[in-house]
Design a protein that fits this description.
Helix content: 40-55%
Radius of gyration: 18 Å
CATH architecture: 3-Layer(aba) Sandwich
Number of strands: 9
Number of domains: 1
CATH class: Alpha Beta
Largest sheet: 7 strands, parallel
Distance between the termini: 51 Å
Structural class: alpha/beta
Bound molecules: NADP nicotinamide-adenine-dinucleotide phosphate
Number of helices: 8
Shape: globular
């Protein structure tokens, strides 16, 4: 039986992806930092008599020790991790935000350092097993968006990290992949105060992630195509045009 570890599996995209993998008879370990939320997610996942396939371990990815212990415990007591979906993320948008150092620190600790701690331990246990590390970044990492500096640098870091590790981890026989979803309706995006074009459900994202992770081998997984390709296109726009678009969109 194959095993996937999903960080941040207690809600949103992580939870929906867990559901898909369980429905397809994978053994799933979800983790997140809030014990009550995690236990409630586990119960929901067990509803369809999949009790033996669902495991939950509290793990705050911003703690290196916690990450090391969690991965050791999965490998020893549950099964070898075939896919690690590094999905957990902190997100605290604030449209009036100019520069809030506490928010930057939180997002650096969870999204950047947390991802690094996971990768650091996974590289030891996954070495020469042809396993996969899939990191969920975001199109917000493609360019700097107004009021999204903290989240943006964390997602840009994850994207750049994934690209570098794609090369480096080939030597360890570990596949590194990156996932960049468009707008998905979750607890995180409910905090957004702007209208999100092409908003899709978490279930939609879960199905896309399951299908692409289990059938393809390509480095990048994006969905829905239209909006993500639009964001990709903005990467090559000169600053004059890029800034002009934001001025027209929101007087930034
Ligand atoms: N929704 C979108 O439109 C969208 C678009 C592009 C990319 N993404 C990316 O997709 C991923 C999932 O986002 P989502 O929208 O599904 O968000 P979400 O519903 O807010 O889920 C985030 C998950 O991360 C966990 N988490 C937060 N801090 C943690 C920590 N310190 N340690 C461990 N787990 C932690 C949360 O659980 P606890 O609170 O229990 O810790 C929760 O399970 C993120 O990486 C996000 O950047 C989302």
């Amino acid at each position: 039986m194959q095993t996937i570890w999903i960080t941040g599996g207690s809600s949103g995209i992580g939870f929906a992806t867990a559901k898909e993998f369980i429905a397809n008879n994978w053994q799933v370990v979800i983790s997140s930092s809030n014990k009550i939320k995690l236990e409630s997610a586990k119960k929901k996942l067990e509803l369809n008599n999949h009790k033996n396939l669902v495991h939950a371990i509290v793990c705050d990815i911003s703690s290196k020790n916690n990450v090391d212990e969690t991965i050791n415990s999965i490998e020893k007591n549950i099964g070898k991790i075939d896919i690690a979906l590094l999905n957990a993320s902190a997100y605290s948008p604030n449209k009036n935000q100019i520069f809030d150092i506490a928010n930057y620190e939180l997002l650096v600790d969870v999204n950047i350092k947390g991802t690094l701690y996971c990768v650091n331990k996974l590289k030891d246990v996954m070495k020469n097993r042809n396993n996969t590390i899939a990191i969920i970044s975001s199109p917000l990492g493609y360019r700097g968006w107004p009021t999204a500096g903290a989240y943006g640098i964390s997602k840009a870091a994850q994207l750049s990290l994934s690209e570098s590790l794609y090369f480096d981890f080939r030597k360890l026989n570990i596949n590194v992949r990156v996932i960049c979803p468009g707008f998905i309706d979750t607890e995180a995006t409910k905090k957004n105060s702007f209208k999100m074009p092409f908003l899709k459900s978490a279930e939609y994202a879960g199905k896309k992630i399951f299908n692409r992770l289990t059938t393809g081998k390509e480095f990048e997984i994006i969905f829905p195509y239209l909006i993500v390709y639009f964001f990709k296109f903005t990467r090559i726009l000169p600053y004059k045009i890029y800034f002009y678009i934001w001025k027209k969109l929101g007087n930034f």
